[in-house]
Amino acid sequence: MKGIWKYKDLMDLPTNLPPFSLGEGDTPLIQSKNIGPEMGMTNLYFKLETANPSGSYKDRFAAIAIAEILNKKSKICLATTSGNTGAALAAYSAAAGLPCKIAIVEGAPEGKLKQMRAYGAKLFMIKGFGISSEISERVFDKLAKLAVQYHTRIQVSAFKYCPIGMKGVQSISFELAEDMPEAKNIFVPAGGGGLALAVARGFHLWRQRFPGFEVPRVHCVQPEGNNTIAGNLRLGLDYAQPVTDAVTKISGLQVANVIDGNDTLKACRDTKGNGYLVTDKKVFECQRLLAEKEGIFAEPAGAVSLAGWLEAVRSGELKPEDKAVCIVTGNGFKDPPSIEDLINMNPVQYLEDEESMDAYFGVE
Amino acid sequence: MKGIWKYKDLMDLPTNLPPFSLGEGDTPLIQSKNIGPEMGMTNLYFKLETANPSGSYKDRFAAIAIAEILNKKSKICLATTSGNTGAALAAYSAAAGLPCKIAIVEGAPEGKLKQMRAYGAKLFMIKGFGISSEISERVFDKLAKLAVQYHTRIQVSAFKYCPIGMKGVQSISFELAEDMPEAKNIFVPAGGGGLALAVARGFHLWRQRFPGFEVPRVHCVQPEGNNTIAGNLRLGLDYAQPVTDAVTKISGLQVANVIDGNDTLKACRDTKGNGYLVTDKKVFECQRLLAEKEGIFAEPAGAVSLAGWLEAVRSGELKPEDKAVCIVTGNGFKDPPSIEDLINMNPVQYLEDEESMDAYFGVE
């Protein structure tokens, strides 16, 4: 068996859960070819979650979540996401023959919705949802009632709401532990914190199974404009905190509420992981570095881990010999506007004739 | 070692070629969940080349091609493609620290160029290139001269021009032979025919190494509007033929010249493979089927193999028990306009309030 299901026992899933797969997991782990070496750091690696079937690590969640729905014989997949979770659920629902209905906040960017619609998911946008807190609450209540009627749950990629599905995400750690047990620093982007929590828990599960394994430090990296976990982790506090307004522009990491935050903070600290805060500007720069220096096409959220690694190097908290892995969470095609920004400075050059090619190539 | 480089010996590469990798290969092979079963065909599988680092099987070519450039200590990657080969070469060049310069035909669609530009490749469009045959010839001559000056070759994903790089594509067959040696029908999309030729050659190399292995039938599928190989293969003729004008709208498969065609036809016939011609309409329908019935997000060219499989079933040439694999060559994000067509029929529904949700869900 390939992919995440070979770890079925380790993930601690309901024993009767039938494997359901679109080829998620077994993602590449590749060594930095330029960014690390240029800084004298030869031990930087990237875990390319971009290579999952729908283009992000959320496929590890969706595979288990949809398997659970099938197992419970529910007849629908219900969700409220306009991001990568929605695309993943839409893909796996399509393959499972389940209708997938997704409540979208008013004003959600069209680009993010296209992949879900391509898989045939039914999207509905409710006036005021995500804008008025009163309306949002009423919509959630209504969704909760519909979920009960359909004998299902609302799919959210957080342990707080969907602990079974999130167990699938732990498989990232199992793969890292197998492929590179000597990597001692894992940099993980965080919005609500579910990914970092799953990664930390995954390593603990691996150590339970293989007692000689040394759990690496799981570092939580957040944009400054959504500092719910990373700042307090760094300060030694033992709780996460909501922000009034998630002002970061990094799509997918705007999660103002705590959700899994307290557990994430504790789990990262248990691994001796630290918190890193990075500016949006640095994240967009890292997206460009990944593309131009490593050939890795990532969405901005996927470049957050590298921004955290750079900060750890700058501050001296990471030594040149320290082996580190940055998790690149999602594919560049997920966020077309960010690609426009990326390529603005690299236009197509128009040449009048083939003779102009010498000058263009700088040939004497 | 993971990916294509574990087959280095089998690929018959120059022995001193240093592995260069972005995590290409090891792509998922998944069973059809709906399309096959709904037709009583339970043995349909998909090989998801969409999961490669830049989103297409061309990464298997680029990894070897760039390794060869590095090995020869050339200082540049030169190419003339506006499609997936360009994106793959741009990615691997970026990682290799090589400038990548790509001559683009006049009028090439902007969307196709974005991924190359994101990786930092330098694109230049020459007036009349690809439109006037006279200008095109002059541009090619000029490029050939530049290639000599730079001690390199112009990168084209065809055995005729780049036999070393194309050997990397043979790894698809090695993976299939390992994962599912009992699959006896492989459906392969063809433009110039390089992919089908690589797949057929790969299986023959596998049989040389493992004499008990039975080479599967490699079927060549082409859009009717680019019938250079498939029609003659079916007719029993022993040559490919150019078309005056490749009128198919399937991006990436518009290759009017023969290029590898004669070798492709012969290699497919040696495997007892057949030729299948499919309409563009059927291909776009298959793109939709893959998304909505299988959760597979493919570009139109990636759905051509399924269109061929459907034709083989319809004609009775494939029996229900015959195990078949369709190679899904590229990711849906490669061709944004085709996604627009796909989702036009599935708009976002706007609801006035949460009470409207009952009616929307069809709850009494």
UniProtKB/TrEMBL annotation, chains A, B:
Q: A Pfam family matched by this chain, by name? A: PALP
Locate the Tryptophan synthase beta chain-like PALP domain: which residues? 21-330
Keyword Lyase present in the record's keywords: the answer is: yes
**Coiled-coil segments, which residues?**
none
Provide this UniProt record's keywords sorted from A to Z: Lyase, Pyridoxal phosphate
A single GO BP term for this record reads:
L-threonine catabolic process
Q: Which cofactor does it need?
A: pyridoxal 5'-phosphate
InterPro entries this protein is in?
Answer: Ser/Thr_Dehydratase, TrpB-like_PALP, TrpB-like_PALP_sf
The answer, when asked if Lyase is one of the entry's keywords, is: yes
Q: What is this protein called?
A: Threonine synthase
| Species for this entry | Cyclobacterium lianum
